[in-house]
Write a structure and sequence with these properties.
The complex is a heterodimer of chains A (385) and B (255). By secondary structure, chain A is mainly alpha-helical. Chain A contains 14 helices and no strands. With 255 residues, chain B is an alpha+beta fold. Chain B is globular and about 45 Å long. Classes of the chains: A mainly alpha (385), B alpha+beta (255). The complex binds iron/sulfur cluster (2 copies).
Chain lengths: 385, 255
């Protein structure tokens, strides 16, 4: 099937070359980081994780969201999602690969990455994250590819794929739960020390992922002959509406606990993002943008009149995606370190090389996605004609 | 079968003494053990700890910091973003946020407190490390293997005391005078205080303790009732940093 990725329109090749170019720029900056060390980024002794780990966290959510199309289709036989499960699985593949690359980009000694396997340490959450992420990647490659291949031959997928699909459902939940545990089990980091971290991660994942899927479906419909179906898009819209509501609800719960209990070690972080601490308030505009976008998206999504209009739904999805990206793909990780355990407020902002390396990894993810979608769409078009 | 004289005597001896002699042998072996550990000194016994007597600590003195950073090739990087430190001072109320209040007296307010890795009994840094590059020894020292560390910095997020530094860049150009007896680090690995593990192995006390003229730092085995640290703990009221987190810090402060 892979040959289908090699024949395409001018637009397709334009996209591929554009993404390759961004990757190239990212690679040049990565070389610089390789030579100089991670000091090239904005990270510091106090804020020791930054944009890379935040992207990783955000993208684990996007990857996990595939379950939102797989589960209704395979467990509830919800036919409308049949056409797009493959889109969800391929998003998962691309996002997990991005996650792994972001972790490597963040390592101080990337050549030693295999030490995680050579000296397996089950008490480390990172060890388990490595296992669940790689397992999830493998599952989605196997499932996606085999289902598509059998669809092409108009035969049902091989029998062994079915159990893998069932396993992939709880597995999707596991990748985001384990990722939440990286944060939620650390003493002395009040911002992260919350049992609701995993549910929050899942809620935001099930809002952000399907929002991306809606946008991708609309793009495919516009530029190819493949139609994911109005029903599928509308129902994804409902999922986004529910998940986003739950996500906002969870954040309000955090805010209540933190500000009503008045425990400084928990409260200072929230003060930092919403009001700033002293003259330090770099994240304040970001956080309020995220909040405003979240509220706006809820208005557009909960109201059926606006949600049913595809143009507005698309807008709402863009808003959801950016709101969540700010909250989870940036603020959540950085704020855990501000103020530091010694009460010092040392602010963080990513540097130019760091931003370009990040863009390069995103471009790589989109390139993988573009190639996989090209294959999927070509197969679907072939069947339909 | 060839048995030399000594061997023969041993076998014969055991045969004659038999079960009756067992308590004697036990006593003998215990004495041997005690002798062996006495030779190595208290420094390799059970649970190593330090007492910092803040009352003896002189304002502006940096002897312990200079001694430690000198002997361990800790680079001096002025930029707080990239800085590396094993032992340093912080205002008392920053070091002990739980003890902070408006009326802190006794000259403690704003006075410097010596901070270093607490060599925690239940170290969260060890718990999270995915490669065992950070590990806890039998005697309680929390150690780093610079050759195994992948630089993921999970341990920095996990340490609630800010005890760990990361080599954001090559540290070597920033080392004032390289001590050839101790390794320098590369970029991309984490480092922190090692309780002078390399000196203990030679029977020396930690460099910071040795350098302090005012006896503000005392080091020893807290499991040994007659040790100096235990004596200070007995006769003074001491506190630890953030004990409520359950990490079991082993640096005790006389305030
Ligand atoms: S003070 Fe920090 S680095 Fe030292 S043992 Fe405790 S948790 Fe680990
Ligand atoms: S940075 Fe090194 S010592 Fe720290 S957790 Fe990672 S591998 Fe372990």
């Amino acid at each position: 099937m892979f040959e289908k990725a090699l024949i395409g329109s001018k637009k397709y090749w334009g996209l591929v070359i554009g993404l390759l170019a961004i990757m190239g720029v990212g690679a040049i900056f990565y070389l610089q980081q390789w030579n100089y060390g991670l000091g090239i980024t904005g990270m510091s002794r106090d804020v020791s994780w930054g944009l890379y780990i935040a992207q990783f966290t955000f993208l684990v959510g996007v990857a996990a969201s595939a379950v939102m199309v797989v589960l209704p289709y395979y467990l509830h036989n919800y036919k409308a999602f049949g056409r797009i499960t493959i889109l969800g699985e391929f998003v998962a593949v691309a996002s997990v690969i991005m996650c792994l690359v972001f972790i490597i980009a963040d390592l101080g000694q990337p050549t030693r990455a295999l030490n995680i396997i050579l000296y397996p340490t089950p008490n480390s959450i990172l060890f388990w994250d490595m296992i669940v992420l790689n397992g999830y990647l493998l599952l989605n490659i196997l499932i996606g590819w085999n289902v598509l291949a059998s669809e092409r031959k108009s035969v049902p997928p091989p029998a062994w794929v079915k159990p893998l699909i069932y396993i992939s459902i709880p597995w999707a939940v596991s990748i985001h739960t384990v990722t939440a545990f990286i944060y939620a089990g650390l003493p002395g980091r009040g911002f992260w020390l919350t049992a609701i971290m995993a549910p929050r991660f899942l809620a935001s994942a099930f809002a952000g992922g399907p929002a991306l899927l809606i946008l991708l479906s609309l793009i495919l419909r516009k530029f190819t002959k493949f139609d994911p179906g109005k029903d599928a898009i509308q129902n994804l819209g409902k999922i986004v509406a529910y998940a986003m509501s739950i996500n906002v609800f969870f954040i309000l719960l955090e805010i209540f606990t933190v500000f009503y209990s008045q425990i400084p070690e928990h409260m200072h972080h929230f003060e930092y993002i919403f009001a700033g601490l002293g003259e330090h308030g770099k994240l304040v505009p970001w956080m309020w943008t995220s909040v405003t976008l979240a509220v706006l998206s809820l208005i557009l999504l909960i109201n059926p009149i606006t949600r049913r209009r595809e143009g507005i739904l698309a807008l709402a999805c863009v808003i959801v995606f950016f709101s969540l990206w700010i909250e989870k793909g940036f603020v959540l990780v950085v704020t855990g370190f501000i103020p530091s355990p010694l009460g010092r407020v040392f602010e963080y902002s990513p540097t130019i090389p760091e931003i370009f390396i990040t863009l390069g990894v995103w471009a790589m993810g989109f390139l993988i996605l573009a190639v996989l979608y090209k294959i999927a769409v070509a197969v679907k078009e072939e069947i339909e004609t | 079968m060839k048995i030399d004289r000594r061997g023969f005597l041993k076998i014969g001896g055991l045969g004659i003494l038999g079960v009756a002699a067992k308590p004697v042998i036990d006593v003998v072996s215990k004495v041997k053990l005690a002798e062996a550990s006495a030779k190595k000194g208290v420094l390799v016994e059970k649970r190593l700890a330090m007492v910092v007597n803040l009352k003896n600590c002189k304002d502006g003195c940096t002897d312990c910091i200079d001694a430690c950073h000198g002997v361990h090739n800790v680079p001096y990087i002025a930029n707080p973003k990239d800085e590396i430190k094993w032992i340093w001072t912080e205002q008392y109320e920053k070091a002990f946020p739980d003890q902070e209040h408006r009326f802190i007296g006794g000259g403690m307010k704003g006075s410097p407190a010596i901070l270093l890795c607490n060599h925690c009994d239940n170290p969260s840094c060890v718990r999270v490390c995915p490669t065992k590059a950070t590990f806890k020894r039998e005697d309680g020292i929390v150690m780093m293997d610079y050759h195994r560390c992948i630089g993921c910095r999970f341990c920095m997020a996990a340490c609630p005391y800010g005890s760990r530094s990361f080599n954001w860049r090559d540290p070597r150009p920033f080392i004032k005078k390289i001590n050839p007896d101790f390794p320098t680090r590369t970029k991309g690995v984490v480092e922190k205080c090692n309780f002078c593990e390399e000196r203990l192995a030679k029977g020396l006390i930690p460099a910071c303790v040795e350098s302090c003229k005012n006896k503000a730092l005392v080091f020893g085995n807290v499991e040994e009732p007659n040790s100096e640290v235990r004596e200070i703990l007995r006769s003074n009221y001491t506190i630890r940093r953030k004990p409520g987190l359950g990490t079991g810090p082993q640096i005790y402060y006389v305030v």
